Amino acid sequence: QVQLQESGGGSVQSGGSLRLSCAASGYTVGRNCMGWFRQAPGKEREAVAVILTPGSESYADPVKGRFTISQDNAKNTVYLQMNSLKLEDTAMYYCAAKDDRCSYRSRDYEYWGQGTQVTSPH
């Protein structure tokens, strides 16, 4: 049974930083694609960053240069380091996993965590 458990969300002032973690069980990080998505109220879920192996990271334009996705295979965990947070980064953040190559389409992902809330007010 695959389980993805996010943690690390919270409220931080604009310009601040947070690091999200996604611990996977029943699924091997580093052999499959892991992604971070987010969904703000009234908006569609959107991709933030994806990773298959180190060096293959890819980022959505709104977060390039501010967010970093990484993985620790020994801990079977994926991270999302978020710096220079903005009001528009406020959303529920989800960890997701899919077999084979990465995708920016949420419907391609088979497994999802419950989400962790990130709030960055003015």
In total, the number of strands is 11
Q: Using the CA coordinates, give the radius of gyration.
A: 13 Å
The percentage of residues in β strands lies in: over 45%
Basic shape: globular
Please state the structural category. mainly beta
In DSSP terms (H or I, runs of 4 or more residues), the helix count works out at 0
**Mean of residue pLDDT?**
95
Q: What keywords describe this structure?
A:
0% helix, globular, mainly beta, 4-stranded antiparallel β-sheet, 7-stranded mixed β-sheet, 46% strand, 122 residues
Describe the protein's architecture and organization.
The strands form 2 sheets. Strands 2, 4, 5, 6, 9, 10 and 11 form a 7-stranded mixed sheet that branches. The mean pLDDT is 95. The chain is mostly beta strands and 122 residues long. A hairpin with a 4-residue loop joins strand 7 (67-72) and strand 8. It has strands at 3-7, 10-11, 18-25, 33-39, 46-51, 58-59, 67-72, 77-82, 91-98, 111-112, 116-119.
